[in-house]
Design a protein that fits this description.
- This protein has 181 residues and is an alpha+beta fold.
- It has a single domain (3-160), classed as Jelly Rolls.
- It is built from four helices and eleven strands, in the order ββαβααβαβββββββ.
- The strands form two sheets. Strands 1, 2, 3, 4, 6, 7, 8, 9 and 10 form a nine-stranded antiparallel sheet that branches.
- The longest helix is centred in the middle third of the chain and has 11 residues, at 59-69.
- The radius of gyration is 16 Å and the shape is globular.
- The two termini are 13 Å apart.
- Bound molecules: fe (ii) ion.
- Fe (ii) ion is lined by residues 93, 97, 99, 103, 141, 143, 165.
- Fe (ii) ion (FE2) binds at residues 93, 97, 99, 103, 141, 143, 165.
Length: 181
């Protein structure tokens, strides 16, 4: 189930608000410039769907977002709990960082936990199947795929170089709950 927990950036002990309805999550994130929405496929997708099948199924939603923000490329990324490098992959984005580009993820299946640190708040956004999250360029955040990661995500990019992570050196991420899966 999708969930937004809102913390302050000085107290990680308990959230000050929790939202589970998609519309409520979107409303709470929107003032900070973070886009959250829910997409539905225009066809059934089997477990053997290729990258092209997945992109085709969400073509209309992808095109709308591409036009609005000027994205130049799209791909599909996946991980399963059997992945031999899952721990290294999890650790890669587990500390607070920024990118010069948007971080846009649409969850075709599976889940992931984004933490976004902005305006004195820490938003914990647990994304599940059907969720789109767009984090603006240069906004501090981290991502936890959990110890048993499972997801397939569509990613949108404006520039390939924009995807490099710039770590802030802060240890804030260690103070907030990890994803248990
Ligand atoms: Fe990131």
């Amino acid at each position: 189930m999708s969930e937004l927990r809102v913390y302050t950036d000085t107290d990680s002990s308990a959230p000050v608000a929790v939202h589970t309805l998609g519309a409520d999550i979107a409303l709470a994130l929107e003032p900070s410039g973070i886009l959250f929405s829910r997409w539905s496929a225009d066809r059934e997708l089997g477990g053997d769907a290729t990258q092209d099948d997945i992109i085709a199924a969400y073509r209309d939603s992808i095109d709308e977002l591409t036009q609005r923000y000027g994205f130049k490329s799209v791909d599909v990324v996946s991980i399963s709990p059997q992945h031999p490098d899952k721990d290294a992959m999890r650790n890669k984005f587990l500390s607070e960082h920024t990118h010069a580009d948007y971080e846009v993820r649409f969850f075709v299946e599976g889940e992931g936990l984004f933490y976004i640190h902005v305006d004195g708040k820490v938003f914990a956004v647990r994304c599940t199947q059907g969720d789109l999250l767009s984090i603006p360029a240069n906004m501090t955040h981290w991502f936890d795929m959990g110890p048993n990661p499972f997801f397939r995500c569509i990613r949108l990019f404006t520039t390939p170089e924009g995807w490099v992570a710039n770590f802030t050196g802060s240890d804030i991420a260690q103070h907030y709950p990890a994803l248990a899966n």
